[in-house]
Amino acid sequence: MRIGLVFIFSFICLSVLGQDYRNTKQIHQGDISNMSQIQKMEDTLVYLADSMMGAPIPEARVEGSYAFIKTMRRFLQEKETFNDPLKKLKEKIYIVDAPDKRLRMYTWEIIKATNDVRYYGVVQFNDGSYQPLIDVSDQMYRGAEDSVFTNMRWYGAIYYNIMHKKIGEVDAYFLMGYNGNAINGDKKVVDVFGFDRQGRGIFGAPLFNSIAGRKRKKSMRFIMNYQKNAKVSLNFDKEKDMIIFDHCESSVGDASKKNTYVPDGTYDGLKWDGRNWNMYTNVIQIMDLKQNNAPVGKPLNK
After folding, report:
1. pTM to 2 decimals?
2. Does residue 207 sit within a domain?
3. Is the residue at 296 inside a domain?
4. What would the pLDDT profile of 108-133 be if each residue is shown by its tens digit?
5. Is the dihedral of CA 293, 294, 297, 300 positive or negative?
6. Which structural domain range is residue 64 located in?
7. Contact at 8 Å (CB) between 240 and 208?
């Protein structure tokens, strides 16, 4: 009887393992003999990204991120990766290229648990060098807008857009991103990346003139705080030549409670004047349409 149970158990295990094996997604979709080294490594990164982001157990996601970082380190040592489009990897993590082709930013997030998010990143340069980014945003309860960060102490975010500006002879790269590691709120960020006199990468510079109440405020970066999971937009608008974002107000009428801020239907913006980003309110006029009073365009020529 015992032998029979062992046989049945072994048969079930082999069947399950066999089914899992047949359904396992292969790392490489094409003939590996026809793939370049970069293509092979990109496929491996895509495979590991699925593990670190999709694993149901938090510990497995963390372990997956370690494997991803280890492979990413080897990947970045190949100088040719800088000019590769990396179409597959861009479907898994955020990759933005500076308009002047001097640098490329890789960023991603790992959700360890509810309201426990960790950000990771790498700055890759066109000379073959790179700098890892070490997130400390979860330690910044206040003062993030007025602080200068380095790659080893980085205000983490996932960057979805990058702009390049010249300030005299100095290059400045403005990064638009998202940070959601606070317990009761999310953030949209416009940060600036540049270089100090020793050529080291730094984040933050006094280039933002925002409006707090009725006063102008100079800051090192622009940060929007708003209610958790609220739908808030912030991005560059080519037509208006401005960074446009939702104007948010407290849903409970308490301006001090940033975690209650939600969009009110109007939009503010940041305009570049050659040296600073200056904030302006109500930059997009919203037409208040009454019922049965839709806008009418020019009549068609018959």
Report:
1. 0.83
2. yes
3. no
4. 999 877 678 899 999 999 999 999 99
5. negative
6. 35-92
7. no
